[in-house]
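Tokens in:
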């Protein structure tokens, strides 16, 4: 039923799986825990909740590349109803969440908070080639790179660290405070998921 899954991150906070769905294939969403679906391609999906199949009918939605959608702890499926393969990333929250609210606090001013709830904060990072961000902070997070770049991070103690994020890279980053510079010729685009 489901396409090939590749585990990308597993720790005490999250389980992150990338899956390529051929037309007609579905991603099964476990019902025990909440999570986030990030679409790496544009397409069409049919979402079917399994807890109340008599009350809720499947719904078809058009999704955009980079779209991040919260999934409550409810079993279901996301089926590719489009004509082309669809790459999706499922991030499952393994913790119980928390009551604190972060909002945009600590983030660079150009970051856009997509949503925040008791499980985590999800935001969009876009930084044009040749530009910099002011000093800002991140919590531990999943990074899903939609457009890679050559970066340099300046730490508060003066250290400088070069980094490369590649398009399609999915990884785990520890909390940090830094000034970011996009040294490359490509714009950076990342979806970040910070579990609480």
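Residues out:
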């Amino acid at each position: 039923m489901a396409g090939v899954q590749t585990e990308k991150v597993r720790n005490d906070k999250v389980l992150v799986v990338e899956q390529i769905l051929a037309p007609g294939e579905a991603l099964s969403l476990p019902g025990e825990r909440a999570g986030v679906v990030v679409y790496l391609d544009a397409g069409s999906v049919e979402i079917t909740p399994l807890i109340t199949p008599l009350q809720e009918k499947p719904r078809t939605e058009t999704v955009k590349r980079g779209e991040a959608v919260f999934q409550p702890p409810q079993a279901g499926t996301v089926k590719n109803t489009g004509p082309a393969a669809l790459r999706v990333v499922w991030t499952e929250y393994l913790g119980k969440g928390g009551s604190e609210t972060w909002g945009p606090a600590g983030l660079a001013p150009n970051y856009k908070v997509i949503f925040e709830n008791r499980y985590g904060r999800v935001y969009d990072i876009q930084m044009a080639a040749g530009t910099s961000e002011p000093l800002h902070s991140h919590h531990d997070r999943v990074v899903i790179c939609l457009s890679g770049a050559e970066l340099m991070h300046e730490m508060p103690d003066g250290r400088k660290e070069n980094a490369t994020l590649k398009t399609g890279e999915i990884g785990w980053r520890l909390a940090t405070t830094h000034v970011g510079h996009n040294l490359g010729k490509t714009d950076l685009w990342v979806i970040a998921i910070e579990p609480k």
